[in-house]
């Protein structure tokens, strides 16, 4: 037994001498060991906040929030120093006493049971070295630690250490750990909470208060005991703190799947506009202010995934939706697909056939801008053939000969749209589309019906409709309102400059006509509790009779403009829509019903400089015309014609006399429903009829019943 102790003593003495010699050599060499200071720059978490400053989510490679040593309470610093490196403020990076003690205990145990690394050595290892266990790596660790001590103060080294170490559950650094486990910043931690965090770095998973609360408490109590032994707290305080339970307020940093598309498009904009790579954003500690509406973002996510909004049998169909603030151009919500995955196919940016939703952009707005057509101009509604082989047809197979632009938009008739584009000229249409940011290579009249070679994206459609929603002006949509670096310095703001592409008058006329689409036209399906203007679009799938390839609704309220698309990524005879535009229309209306009160129930406001668009004149057929003979007038007898007139003062009447099948117009009656035929020949057979006339279009309605002159019973 005595021999064994003597052997151990000799080994310890020799080890101590050896450590001293090696230590002296390290001191000589360490001064020349180069340190890459760039590696000391830590990855930090980027925060996405809304425009009210509320945290939406965090973006990070490592979930870390840098904190100054000045904001870390003394008792938190003391807890870490006590348990990790009691002589931290005394050594120069390497604690030879601790190393000797560790070697002694390892020898006694016959295995490695205690480490002798200082806080500075741990920092050196974590920043500059790999985890390989070799003497060369350990030598480098000591040399770097000693050099770090020369270059930085103890406070700076402790700050770097506390900001870098891993605390489990994805949290790096004491600030992120404090918010994760206690849902508060580090400067609000109590002594026992600081002790709990100090006990985690040795084995973050084993001592996690979330996964292993009992072991976490035991480890915390060990730290408190060491703090009392080192004189940081009294014995009475140690007993009191140990009596506290582990009170974790777990602020779980989760990634809401509803935000995935939005986050990806934020990252894309950061790269394109601010030249920040994805890696830089995820590690640079930026604060990015985004215009997202959490309510709208969640609503689009929930509804786009709900099978009830799709035709029966189309549960596997895809969809995309995007909404923008009319005034600022800030994107409020976006969903790139029903099961969107990070950096996956973003259908908001996929080109599709827009169908009739393209008519306002390609035909009607540019026609209004030309000045030769107005909302009540008459357009030909006939099955005409163009270029020898193109005969556009109305979906219901019916043609009225003539129809107003207003009604052509409201009921989405195809023939008038193509006729008008032919009159306007394709070149004027494509030039106008280019102003809207759409470069369409097509040269044919099928542009009028959204039959495009390449198609357009839901994002482009939303952006273009904004011109109608806001006085004819375009704006560049943005996902980033402002971006700040880790020091709080502003890097840049969104450009909210506007460009006029149509006149205010055209924009207002389009709004009124697109309101009619929602109230009485193809977008009547569903209900919405805010004013809404918009256009449906349905493209047929030629492979199946009655099949649909793309279904759209693009529209806007006074505050929000959006686009919803439904369809399959690849339409085949096995995968095609069994319904049309009514489905995305209902979905959009329900999404808009979820708008925050500040974005709802606002009427469309007419600019002072524009003329109001009066509602269309609807001509009712007169079926109660009477013709009464009476004595007098310019001749011996006269005829008094009476009928029930319209309440709309814009309706006037043509009065006709019919003799031997020939009609002769006798008069035009304005503001009345009575007319006296002053001369009547009782020996001739004559009847009378009246026809209502639209004063806006000068179009005559159906003739009334024919009335034959006869004496009244009272004669």
TrEMBL record:
Residues 695-715 are annotated as: Disordered. Keywords: Carboxypeptidase, Cell membrane, Cell shape, Cell wall biogenesis/degradation, Glycosyltransferase, Hydrolase, Membrane, Multifunctional enzyme, Peptidoglycan synthesis, Protease, Transferase, Transmembrane, Transmembrane helix. It comes from the Bacteria. Residues 53-227 form the Glycosyl transferase family domain. It catalyses: [GlcNAc-(1->4)-Mur2Ac(oyl-L-Ala-gamma-D-Glu-L-Lys-D-Ala-D-Ala)](n)-di-trans,octa-cis-undecaprenyl diphosphate + beta-D-GlcNAc-(1->4)-Mur2Ac(oyl-L-Ala-gamma-D-Glu-L-Lys-D-Ala-D-Ala)-di-trans,octa-cis-undecaprenyl diphosphate = [GlcNAc-(1->4)-Mur2Ac(oyl-L-Ala-gamma-D-Glu-L-Lys-D-Ala-D-Ala)](n+1)-di-trans,octa-cis-undecaprenyl diphosphate + di-trans,octa-cis-undecaprenyl diphosphate + H(+); Preferential cleavage: (Ac)2-L-Lys-D-Ala-|-D-Ala. Also transpeptidation of peptidyl-alanyl moieties that are N-acyl substituents of D-alanine. The keyword Hydrolase applies. The chain crosses the membrane at residues 12-35. Residues 320-592 form the Penicillin-binding protein transpeptidase domain. Pfam families: Transgly (PF00912), Transpeptidase (PF00905). NCBIfam families: PBP_1a_fam. This is PBP1A family penicillin-binding protein. It comes from Alkalihalophilus lindianensis. The lineage of its organism: Bacteria, Bacillati, Bacillota, Bacilli, Bacillales.
């Amino acid at each position: 037994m005595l021999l064994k102790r003597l052997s151990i003593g000799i080994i310890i003495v020799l080890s101590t001498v050896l450590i001293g010699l090696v230590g002296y050599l390290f001191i000589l060499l360490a001064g020349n060991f180069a340190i890459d200071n760039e590696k000391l720059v830590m990855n930090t978490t980027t925060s996405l906040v809304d425009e009210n400053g509320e945290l939406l989510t965090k973006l990070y490679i490592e979930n870390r929030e840098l904190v100054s040593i000045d904001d870390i309470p003394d008792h938190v610093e003391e807890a870490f120093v006590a348990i990790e490196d009691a002589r931290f403020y005394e050594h120069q990076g390497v604690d030879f006493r601790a190393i000797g003690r560790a070697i002694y205990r390892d020898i006694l145990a016959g295995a490695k049971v205690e480490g002798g690394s200082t806080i500075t050595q741990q920092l050196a290892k974590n920043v500059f070295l790999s985890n390989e266990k070799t003497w060369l790596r350990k030598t480098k660790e000591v040399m770097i630690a000693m050099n770090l001590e020369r270059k930085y103060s103890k406070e700076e080294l402790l700050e770097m250490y506390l900001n870098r170490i891993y605390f489990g559950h994805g949290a790096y650094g004491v600030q992120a750990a404090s918010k994760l486990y206690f849902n508060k910043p580090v400067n609000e931690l109590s002594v026992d909470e600081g002790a709990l965090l100090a006990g985690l770095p040795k084995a973050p998973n084993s001592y996690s208060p979330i996964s292993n609360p009992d072991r976490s408490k035991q480890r915390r109590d060990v730290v408190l005991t060491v703090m009392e032994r080192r004189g940081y707290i009294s014995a009475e305080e140690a007993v009191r703190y140990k009596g506290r339970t582990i009170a974790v307020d777990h602020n779980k940093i989760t990634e809401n799947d509803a935000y995935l598309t939005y986050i990806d498009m934020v990252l894309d904009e950061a790269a394109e506009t601010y030249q920040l790579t994805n890696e830089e954003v995820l590690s640079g500690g930026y604060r990015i202010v985004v215009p997202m509406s959490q309510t709208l973002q969640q609503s689009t996510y929930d509804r786009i995934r709900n099978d009830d909004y799709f035709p029966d049998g189309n549960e596997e169909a895809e969809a995309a939706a995007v909404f923008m603030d009319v005034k600022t151009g800030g994107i409020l919500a976006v969903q790139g697909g029903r099961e969107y995955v990070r950096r996956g196919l973003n259908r908001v940016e996929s080109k599709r056939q827009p169908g009739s939703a393209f008519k306002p952009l390609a035909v009607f707005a540019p026609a209004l801008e030309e000045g030769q057509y107005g909302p009540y101009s008459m357009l030909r509604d006939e099955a005409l053939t163009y270029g020898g082989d193109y005969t556009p047809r109305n979906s219901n197979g019916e043609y009225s000969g003539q129809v107003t632009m207003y009604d052509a938009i409201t009921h989405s008739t195809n023939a008038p749209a193509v006729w008008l584009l032919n009159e306007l000229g394709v070149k004027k249409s494509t030039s106008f589309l280019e102003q809207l940011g759409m470069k369409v290579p097509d040269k044919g009249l099928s542009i009028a019906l959204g039959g495009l070679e390449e198609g357009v994206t839901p994002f482009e459609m939303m952006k273009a409709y904004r011109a109608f929603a806001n006085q004819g002006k375009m704006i560049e949509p943005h996902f980033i309102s402002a971006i700040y670096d880790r020091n709080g310095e502003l890097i840049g703001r969104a450009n909210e400059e506007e460009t006029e592409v149509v006149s205010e008058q055209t924009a207002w006329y389009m709004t009124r006509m697109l309101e009619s689409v929602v109230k009485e036209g193809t977008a009547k399906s569903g209900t919405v509790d805010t004013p809404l203007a918009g256009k449906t679009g349905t493209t047929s799938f030629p492979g199946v009779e009655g099949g649909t390839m793309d279904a759209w609704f693009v529209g806007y309220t006074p505050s929000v403009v959006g686009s919803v698309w439904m369809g399959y990524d690849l339409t085949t005879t096995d995968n095609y829509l069994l319904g049309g535009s009514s489905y995305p229309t209902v979905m959009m209306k329900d999404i808009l019903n979820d708008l925050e009160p500040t974005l709802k129930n606002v009427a469309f406001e007419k600019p002072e400089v524009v003329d109001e668009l009066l509602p269309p004149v609807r001509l009712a057929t007169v079926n109660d015309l009477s013709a009464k003979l009476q004595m007098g007038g310019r001749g011996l007898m006269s005829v008094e014609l009476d009928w029930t007139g319209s309440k709309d003062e814009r309706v006037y009447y043509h009065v006709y006399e019919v003799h031997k099948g020939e009609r002769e117009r006798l008069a035009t009656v304005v503001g009345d429903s009575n007319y006296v035929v002053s001369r009547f020949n009782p020996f001739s057979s004559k009847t009378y009829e009246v026809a209502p006339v639209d004063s806006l279009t000068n179009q005559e309605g159906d003739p009334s019943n024919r009335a034959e002159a006869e004496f009244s019973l009272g004669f």
